[in-house]
Amino acid sequence: MPDRDSVFYYKNGTYNRAEPNRAHGYDDDEARRQKQPEQEPDRSNIMHRTTEAKSGSVFTIILVSLVAAALLGTVIYVLDRRNTVYNNVSAKQNELTLMEAENVRLQSELESRITARNVEDYAENVLGMKKIDSSQINYIEIQTNDVVNIPEGEATVLTKIKNFFDTCVEYFRG
């Protein structure tokens, strides 16, 4: 049985066996540089190394795969929800645009219906009203030349004395 530290090289259809380098004090590059005599491989000495997975590593791989799948599913779900919301917003904006156009149309229709002629036609035809005649008009006359006179009261003693002094002052002034 070959040593575990043995290294086998495959070159030009033949196997070359290198001895463990640590035992001889060589490092790996020196061992490769040394010319090894080419010999026919002894296939019975070649061992195939089989690796066995540890029981915990399979569980870890499955767990990591499930977590990755869950994260991927979450990302896809969030993107789908975002697209749904964007589509709803776009639909509502289109609906708002249509409603604003309808509002403009209704406002113009309302303005066209409120003309004086349309109001007159509505009053005559629907409400049964008629235009007034000159015989239905009554005029009211208002007097504008009215003057209000406030009668003067009887003069008191003090008022008479004041008036006497005022007339004396006017006499002396000239």
Structure notes:
The protein is mainly alpha-helical and 174 residues long. Among the domains are: 1-50, no CATH class; 60-130. It is 55% helix and 6% strand. It is built from 5 helices and 2 strands; from the N terminus they run E-E-H-H-H-H-H. It has helices spanning 21-24, 28-33, 55-113, 116-125, 157-173; strands at residues 7-11, 14-18. Strands 1-2 form a two-stranded antiparallel sheet. The protein starts with 6 loop residues before the first strand and ends with a helix. Residues 19-26 have low confidence and may be disordered.
Total number of β-strand segments? Answer: 2
What is the succession of H and E elements? EEHHHHH
Rounded to the nearest angstrom, the distance between the terminal CA atoms is 164 Å
Rg over CA atoms, rounded to whole Å, is 61 Å
Helix count, per DSSP? 5
What share of residues is helical?
55-70%
Could you tell me the mean pLDDT? Answer: 78
Strand content: 5-15%
Write down the overall geometry: elongated
Strand order of the largest sheet: 1-2
**Alpha-beta classification:** mainly alpha
- Largest sheet, strands/sense/barrel: 2 strands, antiparallel
Could you list the spans in which at least 5 consecutive residues all have pLDDT below 50?
19-26
